[in-house]
Design goal:
The structure is a single chain. This protein is mostly helical. It has three helices and no strands. Helix 1 packs antiparallel against helix 2 and helix 2 packs antiparallel against helix 3. The radius of gyration is 20 Å and the shape is elongated.
Length: about 110
């Protein structure tokens, strides 16, 4: 007979390890990224993978309240990424205004 509980447990453990490894790779990209967009996307991916880890822990321990925590974390991470992106774009626009570079931007 096939042991479904053991198979599900193995899949959840493998998923957790896979997410942990890919989170480390995303952290490397967030620190070392050549462009600002690469760093923002890497931080966003870390947030998504954290949400997935919370869901995996909730499923493996059969704790329903962790799904609510994952939803709240998803909303907060979305807002954080939007704020971070706007802040970085404002900094970049201010730097380009200070240097006198108006490439790609015309005043109407």
């Amino acid at each position: 007979m096939f042991d479904y509980a053991g198979a599900v447990n193995f899949i959840l453990q493998f998923g957790t390890m896979f997410l942990a490894v890919t989170m480390c790779l995303c952290l490397f990209r967030a620190v070392k990224g050549p462009k600002l967009a690469d760093r923002i996307i890497a931080v966003n991916m870390i947030c998504v993978k954290t949400i997935l880890l919370i869901v995996i822990v909730g499923v493996s321990r059969n704790e329903v309240f962790l799904m609510d925590i994952a939803l709240v974390y998803a909303l907060l991470s979305f807002l954080a990424i939007v704020v971070l992106t706007r802040f970085m774009l404002n900094v970049k626009l201010n730097r380009s205004k200070q240097s006198g570079d108006t490439s790609g931007k015309k005043d109407a």
